[in-house]
Design brief:
rod-shaped
Length: 47
């Protein structure tokens, strides 16, 4: 019984950590995508 509860708790913790990591990394990924696209334009306008 205890092992089952611990297993369920471990799964819940992993899922929660994954969700938090996704939420935290999402803005950084979006910003990186924007900078990657805009850097090409910036180079063209600078030259």
């Amino acid at each position: 019984m205890l092992n089952t509860l611990l297993a369920l708790l471990a799964i819940a913790v992993v899922m929660l950590a994954h969700g938090v990591a996704k939420l935290v990394l999402l803005p950084f990924r979006a910003l990186r995508g924007l900078f990657r696209h805009s850097s090409k334009r910036a180079r063209v306008t600078a030259a």
